[in-house]
Predict the structure.
Amino acid sequence: MRFDSIIIGGGLSGLISGIALARGGSKVALISAGGSALHFFSGSLELWHEGAMAMVPFCEKHPSHPYAKIDTARVERYTTIVKDIFARVGITLQGSSEQNHLRLTPLGALKPAWLTMEGYATFSLGGECDYHSVAVVGIEGYLDFYPEFIAESLSNRGLECGVYNVRLTTLGGLRESSTEMRAVQLSRALSGKTIEELARQIAEKIEDEEVVLLPAIFGLGDKDATKRIEAVVGRRVLVAPTVSASVAGVRVQKALMDEFQRLGGTVLNNDSATGCRIEEGKVVAIRTANLEDEELVAENYILATGSFFGRGLVATAEGVYEPVVGVDVVAPASREEWYSKDLLDAQPFERFGVATDNKFHPLLDGKPIENLYAIGALLAGADAVKEGCGGGIAVMSALRVVEEIEKRG
Amino acid sequence: MNNLGNYDVIIIGGGATGAGTARDCALRGLKVLLVERKDFATGATGRNHGLLHSGARYAVTDQESATECISENKILRSIARHCVEETDGLFITLPEDDLDYQKKFIDSCLKAGISAEAISPEEARRMEPSVNPSLIGAVKVPDGAIDPFRLVSANILDARLHGAKVLTYHEVVDFVRSGNRIEGVVLRNASTGKQSVAYAPVTVNAAGIWGHLIARKAGVEVGMLPAKGSLLVFGHRVNNVVINRCRKPANADILVPGDTICLIGTTSDKIPFEDIDKNEVTAEDVDLLLREGAMLAPALAHTRILRAYAGVRPLVADDSDPTGRSVSRGIVCLDHAVRDGLEGFVTITGGKLMTYRLMAEWATDMVCRKLGRTALCTTATTPLPGSKLEKRESAGERKHFISMRMGEKGAVGRHGERSQQIEFNNASDAALVCECEQVSVAEIKYAIESLDATNLVDLRRRTRMGMGTCQGHICAVRTAGILAKSDKVNHQEALSDVASYVNERWRGIRPIAWGDSLVEAQFTRWLYEGVCGLSEVATNKEEKI
């Protein structure tokens, strides 16, 4: 099979590059192993923890950071493109590259964000919102949302908070099984009578709070669930992310995957690239686990396989390698240099990744491979958690590489 | 200073020895106070193989220990059934080992009263398919597995049921003395920093390696040699039978199955006293354990490692050797009145997890002699709470195991008949907090209310929450949600506790963080810091032990 471009990886960066290339008329194949980091998407994408303005001086000091390879003048344009891509699949992203806003975490912390899905509770950078009181509502038996923690945090910020718990009798078997009360299962069950029961109980229980805050477990069953609840309780309904598997993430991944296919893209689902053939400094074909006898051939190849979690990087007791092409990886040999003591603080292993030139061509024995690109969490040089930039790097590197591929024709 | 009152005996140390002594004293009618500077089983008790020794390991080199082990082995099988797995054990001879040793080994076992039967390599492979297939000989012995956390918890529970008062997170900072007599202890509460005082005519030092420092505080010297042993936990149960090497005891030659996992250990290194709280596992320790472990069961070379940990054995210097270099074998029970002229102070040390009950018996005998009490020891025949593994009865009807919910099954396995105290009244309580180890909301609530657990690390030791494959990435915050609803901690403390817990797990993962373990650690970090912003809401992220 022959394509203009083959993308290896079905996470955010792979999907965004796939959609952008397909929009431009390219014949694109995307190899997806199934799950990705999107499955614990918080509902918000982060660009840079200190805001886009701070990226310029940071990049000057850190030339090996992925952002140092993207002219910051492109950030605004790429922001428009990603908002447009999401809008076309029915997901409204709010926010801009000019200034961060704050999003609410499942434990009640406020974190800087770049773009947030409509319907999630957000605050200005100064921590303000346009309401004064909120009813935080949990669902009995659902353990991945903590109304008490959120209410305490919001109270400390001057909001009046009530904590309420509803007990959904119409969930039936879901409640009886000790492992089924998880966000995704719950979301699928939340339609019809269950939504009615939820809305009715909220209306009965809450006092005069202006806003109702619920866990983000809507959208896989009844897509208009929050609107229907709003209609019954007569207040604005907002959601906050949950700890375990993310309903929004599952929804986003499916919507983007559908859009890619609608645009004519080919998806090789539940498959993974196992190796490639390189001739004269270029990738000429790749192999996948499911297509044993057939090589896939394209003009350009994009590695969007993620970090350790996505299996784009593999760590052994002896060292770190990139398993598909075997390109150069930035990682010290000694394991003692891989970790720091506080897991929540900066971790050296997070900065491990594929070494590239300034156009995101990975290096093999120090030389760039001209028709191969690396994007997203696979790139070396960033600690996405500490620097609040995982989504930003995925989107920016994807769109930058698409631009490069399209320029080369 | 707060006065905690008068007792017959104060026991220092919440390991197996201290807990066992508290139980024995309480069963004999004494008024008991047990104090522990951290949580139960935080020292060597919870940092070993969890091996129910048959005694075979010691048979050739130390007949006395071997005899004690087999006797206690039989007792624990009957009094602590919910803590014991009757797996049996193999001592295998590999081509590089001397097969002649096997005969000497079997003779020594039989002399100590340990059944030891030579079986063919084929039979050994049938009995334990994971065993190194190149073995040239095998001996079957009555080894088993024992859960030290559950064992301590059951001893504490029984002590309390018999009137003992138990204080965790209370450190002994000084003694109350009058002339050459110890009359009580001064305690510091680890969370409030407040001091209190308690009085008793006899105080028992059962503090393991820390007993050296306790004795010094009391004004007497008990020479000890700290020896660090490191172990690795694997992600699933590779073997169902304990596998040992049939040779002179050496490093990393015991592989023990336990619940859902298996353990290889140990190394043995003398360390200085200032390092006894560090418990660091080095890269060399890990490499050695992996290399030797794969000799016992080759599958270990490609089995996921969950974590590494280390404990410190309290080897006691022999009083008869003026250089202090020789080590006493077996149990050491010191009456400091006789030895040092200090009245009211007893040290119980040496020994092993296997002989904790016997150590407790000796210490309690000494306490009773000093108090002029005559009650006899009954701990060898009185089952521990939870040991009666009868089917759970509910509302007068027998409830069959197969009809129980997952978390309920897990609870019966862990708490035996005590699981009847756990309320599985509604679907919410039956919900699983920890899927790896099948721990329910109800079991967590029970451990908070009835088993003295005050934080997530304590709860892990009581329930196995977070001990499985994922090493606590989601169950930690779920448990914190339940903990925050109790009156034990406030929300702020519960959130800080999540951070401390995550870092305590990370400490054990770090030495082996490659492959799937690094994938899991990265996921935990993305979830707790990336999605949840834990650092912002936790005031203290210091790992708890």
Remarks:
- The mean pLDDT of chain A is 94.
- Chain A has two domains: 2-94+249-408, 121-240.
- The longest strand of chain A covers residues 2-8.
